[in-house]
Design goal:
single chain, mainly alpha, two-stranded antiparallel ribbon, 6 helices
Length: 171
């Protein structure tokens, strides 16, 4: 028992879920469920039933998270092992296997996504072909907020002129 408590105290300062910490967490939630069940029986209050469902959901979520962390850790260990195997092959001078592996990766990448030049051609629109419905070019236009409500649409360069005039008048 003393060894368990020592391990529990040390596991608090160890990153990640340790077996001792998982056992202590599960024991604590089991004790809480027993306590809530006994209080439910003693008082017939629905509050203890609701608290029991909430703590049960939290208990399940903690255990799910721990299993996901363990799965991610195993996946990372497998990736490290594969990197070491590849590094060992490269050091050993197994160039034929490396070239075959690289060619197969290139084939997979070529089938998965279009090349950079294809993507850039799809997105590129020359400015000379950008025309509106009335044949005028599509510059960024703003409605004039001047005194007349004729619906006159001005370009940004005209707004720049107005701002310049206003700044000169303030001087």
């Amino acid at each position: 028992m003393a060894d368990f408590l020592t391990n529990l105290f040390q596991s608090i300062f160890t990153p990640g879920p340790t077996p001792t910490l998982i056992i202590a967490t599960n024991a604590s939630f089991a004790a809480l469920q027993i306590l809530l069940l006994s209080l439910l029986i003693a008082t017939y209050s629905i509050h203890f039933l609701i608290l029991s469902f909430l703590s049960g959901g939290l208990w399940w979520a903690i255990n799910w998270f721990v299993t996901e962390l363990q799965a991610a850790k195993e996946k990372e260990e497998e990736a490290i092992r594969l990197r070491e195997v590849r590094k060992h092959r490269e050091e050993k001078g197994d160039e034929g296997a490396k070239e075959t592996e690289m060619k197969s990766e290139d084939v997979v990448r070529a089938h998965d996504s279009p090349s950079q030049s294809q993507r850039s051609n799809e997105l590129r629109v020359p400015p000379s072909t950008s025309k509106g419905l009335d044949g005028e070019s599509d510059f960024r236009k703003r409605r004039s907020l001047g005194g007349d409500a004729s619906g006159y649409i001005s370009t940004d360069s005209e707004w720049d002129k107005v701002e310049k005039l206003e700044s000169e008048e303030e001087r």
